[in-house]
Every structure is written in C-alpha cells, then in structure tokens.
Amino acid sequence: MGNKTLSLDELNAIIANTEEIEEGVVIKDYSINQASDKMLGFLGDYWKLEVELVTRDNDTLRKIFFIKAISKSNDAKADMARDMNLFEKESWFYNAMIKKMSKNGLKPWSSRLITSTNEAMVFEDLNALQYKNRDKFKVYDEEHILLALNTLARFHASSIILEEEKSKQIEKPYFINDKYLFDKGGYKKHNTWFEQCMKGSLEIVTTMSKYRNDAKALQQIENKWSEVWYKALEITEMSNKYRNVICHRDLWNNNIMFRYENVNNTVKAVDCLFVDFAAVSLQPPASDVMLLLYCTLDPVFREQNLNYFLNYYYEQLKNNLSTNGITIENVIPFRDFIESCEEQRLWGIIVSACLVPQFWISEELTKKIFCNTEDFEKILNNDKATFIRAMINNNEGYKKKILPIFEEIVHRYCLST
After folding, report:
1. Virtual CA dihedral for 198, 371, 118, 182, nearest 10 degrees?
2. pLDDT tens digits for 30-46?
3. Relative orientation angle of helices 306-322 and 142-170, to the nearest 10 degrees
4. For residue 1, pLDDT beyond 60
5. Residue 250: strand, helix, or coil
6. What is the DSSP track for 53-109?
7. Edge to edge, what strands does the sheet with 266-274 contain?
8. Using CA atoms, how far apart are residues 347 and 280, in angstroms rounded to an integer?
9. Which of 114, 400, 132 is nearest to 270 (CA)?
10. Strand, helix or coil at 122?
11. Most-buried pick from 19, 54, 182, 290 (CB within 10 A)?
C-alpha cells in the first residue's frame, strides 16, 4: 500500500461508514502515508489516510483515518499475522462483539472501526482526536494507571452486561462462549514465538542475572522454568471457578492511548482508550488487571500500591455494572477477585517477560527490526536470547528494565518452594 492506492469504491465505502459525514459529499482529493516511526506495528503496517471532501453546500471537509494492514514489505511479519488469524479475529471482534458490547450506556473503551477488508482495517484516527501513547520509556504514574484501570473496568463490565442481558432475554444462563470460540493466539504451548520467549529468558537468567554464579539456584531454576511458563498458559484457560470476561490480553504501552487537556495550566491525561483487540479471549478479569499492572508500572511502585489499584478497579467495575442493574457480588465477589489476582500474577509477569524485551528499545532500532524480514524472523522465532543479551550488554537502561522481570519470575516461582 502506498500513496493513492485505494480504489474509488474503497474510498466511498470508508466515507459511507463514517457516521458524522452527511450524505452527498464528494471526494476531492486524498493521500495515504505511512504512520510515523513511533507507531510502527508489531505484526502489521500502519498508514494514515487523509481525505478532502466537498459537501453539498460546497464547503471543504478534511477527515483523517488510521489504517492497519497486513504487511506488504515484511513477509515474516505478514506470515505470523496470517498464521495467528490476527486480522480476521480483530475484524470479527469489532464487527460482531464490540457492537453488541456497546449498547449499555457506558463510555467507549475502544477506537471506532469504520470499515474492514480481509487484510486491512480502517479506524477513526485517535491522534486526530488528541489521543496519544505515553512515552514507552516512562512507566505509568498514578494518573495514567487509574485511567487505564477505569477503561479496563468499562471493557470488562461490557462483557458481563452482555451476558446478563442475554440471560434475561432467553430466561436461562447465557455465556459468550456458548456461541463464540476464542483462540489463544501466540500464547500456546509449542508456539514458536512463545517457546523463544521462554527459552531466551532462561538463557539470560543463567548467564546474566544475579543468579548466574549460584549453581544450586541455577539447578532449581532450570528444573522449574518450563513448568512455570506452561502453568501461566494453563491459568489463562477459561476458569471453572471464577467468572470469565472477554479480556484484551495485550495491554502494553502501544495499545493504550490517552487524551490530554490543559487543566489549570497543567497538561493532564483525562481519558483512555484501548486499541488492537487481536489477542482477545475469555479469561477471569484479574488476568487483564495483573497484565496491565506488570507491563506498565515500576515493580516497587506496583507492589507498594497493589491493593489500592485492585480496589480501585473493582470499585469501577462495581459502578459500571450497577448502572445496568447488576450487583457485582452476584457475579464477581470481592474475595474471589482478590484471590484470582494473586493466581493471575503469574500470567502478568510471564506476558511482561515476553513483551517488554521487544518494546523497550529505541524507535530507530524498532524500525530496523520490524521492517527487516530476516531480523524480525530471527529475533522473534529463532534466537531471541542473542538479541536480549546484546541489548543488555550495550544499554544500561534496558538491563535495569529487563533483568528484574526475569529475576522476579525466579524469586516468586522457581526458588520460593
């Protein structure tokens, strides 16, 4: 895809599906340009579509759209997206589930899909609406994490409300999995990407962590490492004990966007939306909560405020359900939620061990890796450890960020029993 490669029919389909554009507008001009380096896609290419329109009153109207497409320049990236059915799954989720989950009066928690094809999706452009990602090298402060937890509570509440309303209609219990199946994407035993994350991190632990010279500890670590990682996959299966909701499962910096306003001469984050729903699946809500906290917070800050953040999320979920006539204790008792959070802590830390080493790198290096088929394939599917080792050796900030994640896995799950 490049400049001016959409057909007139495709352009008209985009305009026709844009709610705020009245009938009778005429396309005067348009351009398609690759999104900035700061918006490089992990498994897709990102584009900005700018359209100049002429209304029936002969006024000029300019609209900006965001296009997410299967990569045309990186075969490894495209193959990985197709193998995991990521675009098909995300398009289905937007077209089928989000429409059903948005009829509850709650504030939006996602960007709006305009239209889609088999290998591309067109969204409203959140940047044009003053939303942007927080600098990925800055962990979230209280202001940002509370906004993100608030949005997460709306998202999860929408899943529960849908099930509860449907149950009333059919006069028997209804659960989303009765009709829809969700796969686990790359988080599967023997998936090449997941196995590389697991093996690569173990290699770093045994050669570069604070445990590298402790023979007894290394033996315990090596004996339990795979068991711990596979246990994280097991607890993400649909629970028979805790209430399940549709979970995002990919809540790292680039998938969370904030809108900022000037409040009393201070720029503050005032709203938050999630993007990229290609990894959604049914799990206990605590799995998303712990994943979010692990992927975005400083570890010390996280643990010092953990109870506060968990209570805040639960209270927001309670309020969202209450506005739709649902008592939270009837669906997710507080004790169950806290118990589930401790169980899902493992999922949160394993996901952060998979994702953070990939995104805690400069935009220049991200561009080099993500835009080169050979490098992308090697790092993600063949030899992740060599990449992480090189980054640790050459970047003190990367070292201080990555090693504590791996060492927490060791401390909590390999040496604690």
Report:
1. 10
2. 888 877 544 455 667 88
3. 40
4. no
5. coil
6. EE-TTS-EEEEEEEEEE--SS-HHHHHHHHHTTHHHHHHHIIIIIIHHHT-SSPPP-
7. 131-132, 256-263, 266-274
8. 15
9. 132
10. strand
11. 290
